[in-house]
């Protein structure tokens, strides 16, 4: 049982470090409500890791994490003549959960894939505030993005991530083995995460022998095992019945925002979105400026654990916030 | 309204309008639908080309082997009987890999349409329509491939004709078959494709969503191992009692019997032995690729066995017959006729041809099976790529899933061969440098061929990962 405590201490440590800095998410933001231009952002991000975002944050006196954990600026992505993303700005802060909603074809999955470095935007910038400095995701090569996804991000999709012939514990241990961990240690940590997610005793089951909800928990464990600070979820409850869906969402939130990590989630389900700290709505590749009160109210009741509390940035850039419960339209989204 | 799904690709979206329109007149336009669905734009070219190539190779090899075998039946020399017997042996040996290859090609050509056919089902095409489209398409691909195979056969015949049998090159003319035999072979290949398409489709027809859920891994009973070992021991005892072999005719008889027993044993032990190997590897795997490969083999030891079983027979026979040749060589050193010498040389030639042909077929079916597997597991590969699994790891796992059972089977069968032959001939004979070196060389070339076939399917994976929206 050696490795298990390691794993928990790792995540605890990360949770603490996030807590330490969480205050800053509430604070220094661009003075103007207008999102910064691409050029400004690039100037900021091309700077060394030591002084991120100074250029766009005149008010910031360079605290440890002045920048969002993950942000996209003026993201544009076209497929043929269709704009999947037509200039989207989004910022994800440590410890918050952001639900991306919208009709089919609104660009929500494209946005998630762009933020996660699965695809690259045609224009705009994605910046990830990694422990060693700011990473400009959009400018990395294929192999580097693959590595970033493997080592820094976690993923929970509707399907397709778990290898059916592998057991639950092997599936969860896989990312650590890919990172070079010895198999025994990898499986030790995997076992810990499976236990955390209520799957103790099912370690040796193959994926086909698990229920849909159990399989999604395995996927959550797999996403968490490397200690990723950002988890991307694409319709994580899409294939589940409503009761199981609630359980899986609880598990997902507990293991992400509950640990001070961030969750970016694409969903069709209003009830799922309502449990996130805020909702970003997309229509035709743009952020819809006014989140309706209906989506705001439930969000407050399901605030994630300590770190930041709910914030409603309205999908725009890093807005100054006075009232946490009032959605502020993002200027760039109009 | 036809209720066509909004998100489907254009050719599929076009299909529903065609179905009801014709349905109104009573019949679905199978041929037109098939043609529409076969447009190359939407699917990876490899999925049409691979089965076609596999069918072509199957047909060409089948024709060459038939031609060669029939040639011996036209001989009227004294020892023609021995040659004829050996030609049957070679034909029998090549049947398994040939059937595997043909089946794999048919399965791929049937499977690659699964998603579209499932869509067709969803929009209301009857199972009958779906079946007919698939069968028609697979059969058309098979016929095209088989016709290309006939051309290939005619093109290669002069080269094959250079192989010496009976002391002189056999010549291209000797291998040429009657037109009706060629036609029968083409028809046979097409029939095989049609049957496989029907069988492969059953899953789609049962479930319109085409969901493949595997609950439990295949289990292979340990009793197989026990029975297999018992038979080997029994055969060893019997052969031991026989003692040293007297003459050539007896050699052939005993070797044929040994072959029959060996094939039986191998088929019995094979899947079980592969499952044991995979279990050991699952436990000892230290890298993701090794773990995934071992679990993949364990998932279906019988399928892993089927893919390489043709090679098992050939490897087994190479050892048994190779020893026979070496044995005959030493006999020939004493006193023997020129005819005996000739026969010995010819047997060796025959073994090498059979080995190479088996390897070519195994390589082809590996390529086709792998392409089918990649397409089958498209969403998994796309998902793994998204979470950052390096492409290298996927390739290594894929490669190991095939190469490990292949190596194991080739070596394992050779060992079974050695065990059975040991009582008849000393170890020195079995390891007679002349035959062994050549056979080992054949193995090396064969393994390279299979590896190359695996490499040939990489573009399919590239395509799948490059078009994740199709997942």
Structural description of this entry:
The complex is a heterodimer of chains A (334) and B (471). By secondary structure, chain A is an alpha/beta fold. Helices cover 34% and strands 19% of the residues of chain A. Chain A is built from 10 helices and 10 strands. Chain A has helices spanning 3-22, 38-46, 108-115, 142-152, 168-178, 183-196, 212-224, 242-255, 270-274, 293-301, and strands spanning 70-79, 82-92, 97-102, 123-130, 133-136, 153-157, 230-234, 262-266, 278-283, 286-287. A 6-stranded mixed β-sheet of chain A has the order 6-7-8-3-9-10, with helices on both faces. In chain A, a hairpin with a 2-residue loop joins strand 1 (70-79) and strand 2. In chain A, helix 5 (168-178) crosses helix 6 and helix 7 (212-224) packs parallel to helix 8 (242-255). The longest helix of chain A is centred in the N-terminal third of the chain and has 20 residues, at 3-22. Chain A is globular and about 50 Å long. Chain A starts with a helix and ends in a 33-residue tail after the last helix. In chain A, 56% of the residues are buried. With 471 residues, chain B is mostly helical. Chain B contains 18 helices and 2 strands. In chain B, strands 1-2 form a two-stranded antiparallel sheet. In chain B, strand 1 (164-165) and strand 2 (168-169) form a beta hairpin. In chain B, helix 3 (46-73) runs antiparallel to helix 4 (80-111), helix 3 (46-73) crosses helix 6 and helix 12 packs antiparallel against helix 13. Chain B is globular. Chain B starts with 9 loop residues before the first helix and ends in a 5-residue tail after the last helix. The model of chain B is unreliable at 1-23 and 204-215 (pLDDT under 50). The A-B interface holds A 104-105, 113, 116, 118, 143, 145-151, 153, 155, 157, 159-161, 163-166, 170, 174-175, 177-178, 182-183, 206, 208-209, 222 and B 6-7, 213-217, 285-288, 291-292, 295-296, 298-299, 379-380, 382-391, 393, 468, 471.
